[in-house]
Amino acid sequence: MQSRTPAPRATGRPRSAAADAAILAATRAALVELGWSRLTLSDVAFRAGVAKTTLYRRWAGKNELVVDAVAELFDELELPDRGSLAADVEGVVLQFAAILDRPEARSGLMGAVAEAARDDVLRERIRASIVERQKRLVVEGRARAQERGELPYEEDPRTAARTVDLIFDLVAGAVVHRALVSSEPVDADWAVSLTQVLLLGIAGAAQNPAGSV
Amino acid sequence: MQSRTPAPRATGRPRSAAADAAILAATRAALVELGWSRLTLSDVAFRAGVAKTTLYRRWAGKNELVVDAVAELFDELELPDRGSLAADVEGVVLQFAAILDRPEARSGLMGAVAEAARDDVLRERIRASIVERQKRLVVEGRARAQERGELPYEEDPRTAARTVDLIFDLVAGAVVHRALVSSEPVDADWAVSLTQVLLLGIAGAAQNPAGSV
Amino acid sequence: MQSRTPAPRATGRPRSAAADAAILAATRAALVELGWSRLTLSDVAFRAGVAKTTLYRRWAGKNELVVDAVAELFDELELPDRGSLAADVEGVVLQFAAILDRPEARSGLMGAVAEAARDDVLRERIRASIVERQKRLVVEGRARAQERGELPYEEDPRTAARTVDLIFDLVAGAVVHRALVSSEPVDADWAVSLTQVLLLGIAGAAQNPAGSV
Amino acid sequence: MQSRTPAPRATGRPRSAAADAAILAATRAALVELGWSRLTLSDVAFRAGVAKTTLYRRWAGKNELVVDAVAELFDELELPDRGSLAADVEGVVLQFAAILDRPEARSGLMGAVAEAARDDVLRERIRASIVERQKRLVVEGRARAQERGELPYEEDPRTAARTVDLIFDLVAGAVVHRALVSSEPVDADWAVSLTQVLLLGIAGAAQNPAGSV
DNA sequence: CAGTAAACGAGACGGTACGTCGTGTCTTAGG
DNA sequence: CCTAAGACACGACGTACCGTCTCGTTTACTG
């Protein structure tokens, strides 16, 4: 993660590197036990074996702390090569669903997004450290499919970027909505259905440039 | 909305009917000004010209109150006949985005979902009063397309229901994710792209029963 | 006790006479269990099997209700003839102490006096229904002692009244202070000591008109 | 006054010494304006320019706080040498009455005593910080009278202590009762009468050891 | 290797909201 | 007109957390 405070110090006692990790882990543990609204910074500080002061010296508040703690979760996502684009997509959908099944992700992510509705800085932080960070999966999956010949190479970089954005919002949005809003299970069958609609839709749209996809 | 307290009373002063509406309106106003986390029940009570006691007599807490207040927002969604399935979908996507652009919906909806991560009763309340309630749009849109001959009639009711669920999560999820998580604008172009992928995907899947869509 | 509301009514349903007694008894029971500050009118109404409305129709509030409930306690005081002035005084001191040992009297009386510090009407109510009412004991005891020849007859009625007041404040004050403020037992030995000082003091003062006692 | 929290802390930010004095003064001011029952700790905190938390960190509640605030009032009592025992007693009676004429003493003292009826710890606190503390006046007055030859020296310490207790309850009780219960003025005439009865009674009892006074 | 500057723990501080409770008033239906 | 029942506006309760502060202590780099 990028440094929270931009200016490096040359003098004085350096900040404990262990404290950062302990605090983020404690934050996730508190999210599991308490959820977003009952999570308190005093409690996180106690769990991390750290004074409240130390915590406030590094993060501006609960929102920022939780975003950092949750963002680390999504770094676990990988895109192992399963032989076909459809299999790759189904695999990452199930991986994503597995993360969203963990309580620290469920309450942490949505709580942060709720706060971001009224906080531009926080919204940008989420966009940068979660959304942009995970779009790598779409980019990587497309490249692999292009190598396999499953997808044509897109010439226009603007069009390519917009397609990545659309697919990311479609897949991530569908999984989050089903898991957290509709409260329905994201199982293998559902992943297959979603993947089928998605890939057929993309393939069809590629032949029909009217919608500029 | 269904009654909050199941048992009707035969005796004593009856509850003020006007209070309910005033409280829900005050809740939305408070969401606009303060957002989820700074919204307080004391403040809502004051805005509604009502005592805190009255509020707690009717709702169990902030979560339940906000869900009811937000649910009313989505009842504004309509499906005007624009002549084609694609136009209908694009229209409802933009309507949905317009609602999600209002601050009371942004912070209220996500805040409630965040809390629902640890509260089964609240999760069911969201599912019933928001999700199931708005699936009517998908059902209605499909019926209209079938009348127009744009979509075949689906024989198996289970398959039909699963398709409705998938499409609802896909569309609602994509719009919510783009608007609230990715923080990108949901404009007409994006709506066209989404609709194109969606309809081509559905059409393709209907010809290929493997994924049972 | 005198009627709380002066105007008699000619029409409508008459007030239940039993309710008054039930309410005062319930008040004393609540004082025993809860003390002054935790006694609530809702609780008293429930104990008396009466609606809160009924209670407020008859008493202005907690203070007035408790004064009436406590005043009845002191009506139990009697002055049985024990053969000598000293014995009579000792007897009434112990009776008084016995009443002050009951929790409804302890907290009720002092609570009312505390409120009376800022409420002239309440202060007058206490003076009339408790203080003046019980001065009968001093007057009666003096008359009996004069019949026995233990005390001379006082000619001047003003002097007589001032002496009654002084003795009442002395005896009642000493007992209340020892029992409730100093928290020491009022036993037979202490009653003897008090009586001795009191009677010798009165006797001496009667011979020495300087202090106009 | 004794420390409220026995354990001294070695670490953390030390408690503000100024806050204690400000809180006690604010408590007395609130008693003057509001009386016992309408005094609220929120109001006291606001007057003292202190958070409610600070107040609850130092006192268990309203009762304890008021006892401490009132106890300080009685420390103003002195026993200036007026040349004779009678004059000394009359002087202290009038001083005591002057304090009881202040509204903070009237409602504070009686309110605390009322609550003490059901609270052993509070009763002991009153006994220690008000009663025992002010018995010094009786002890000092007796010593001075013995030096003057107005009173004999008492050999038996137990008898001496019981006499101090009796006289304190007699004088304090009579003044409190006249001022607060009977609601009659404690003026110079009444002080003379009380003193006369008291001193003659003590003198008589000293010659008659039957009552062991 | 002593000085110094910042990080650290502890916990008090002024605030603010909580959810509950009591007050005294009111509004209904019934006697 | 009284009564029981209970909703109502108001406001205090005592608790909990916030984010800041003031301490005494610890730890590394620097002169």
UniProtKB/TrEMBL annotation, chains A, B, C, D:
Transmembrane segments: none annotated. Keywords: DNA-binding, Transcription, Transcription regulation. SUPFAM superfamilies: Homeodomain-like, Tetracyclin repressor-like, C-terminal domain. The keyword DNA-binding applies. GO terms for molecular function: DNA-binding transcription factor activity; transcription cis-regulatory region binding. The keyword Mitochondrion does not apply. Residues 17-77 form the HTH tetR-type domain. InterPro entries: Homeodomain-like_sf, HTH-type_TetR-like_transc_reg, HTH_TetR, Tet_transcr_reg_TetR-rel_C_sf, TetR_C. Residues 40-59 bind DNA. It holds the Pfam family TetR_N. This is Transcriptional regulator. It comes from Streptomyces poonensis.
